Amino acid sequence: MVRSTLHEAGAVDIDERVAHWKNAGYAGYDAATPPYTAEQVASDRQAFSVVRESIEVGKREVETGGVRVYSRVTETPVTETVNLREEHATIERRPVDRVATAADLKGGSVEIRETAEHAVVGKTAHVIEEVVVGREATERTETINETLRGTDVEIEHTATGKVEPVPGSVASLDVGPSEVEPRTPL
């Protein structure tokens, strides 16, 4: 029971590990060996970035069209009828056989005026409709669906197969991303 608990906790068999190191060329501690230089330490290090995309949704105004309204004079021919009256002077001669009187022997004149009606056209403009041009604004809500990318970094211990997530990252072993809340990067 103790052995299985140690194994589950990641304990290693030291004798097995020493044999492995010796097979890989390890000959033991040598006090004369100089320490690693800063360049040698840096060459063994490699950085893995944990990346998260963020989204910024803004808006911009674009021209989508418009209207152009013109007002111009039109002409429409019309036909109307009107009855016109004319008066003409008439002269009529009749034969008469009677004795003349003093009134018949007087001189005189008479003037008869002739008249005629002519068509007179008068036009009056009336406003019958107004076309009002303006602009009105409406608002709508649009849902933006986007996929944000990122990277996760995990460490796998090769001797035990144990996987550890890096703080601020999410491990991808046995746990879906929807089941783990991401941590704030350090």
UniProtKB/TrEMBL annotation:
Ranges for region Disordered? 159-186
Q: Please list the coiled coil stretches.
A: none
Name the InterPro entries on file. Answer: DUF2382 (IPR019060), Stress_Response_Assoc (IPR052967)
Using the record, list the residue span of the signal peptide; answer none if the entry has no such feature: none
Q: Where is the DUF2382 domain?
A: 50-155
Q: Which Pfam families match?
A: DUF2382
Source taxon at top rank: Bacteria
- Descriptive protein name: DUF2382 domain-containing protein
Q: What organism is listed for this UniProt entry? A: Caballeronia sordidicola (Burkholderia sordidicola)
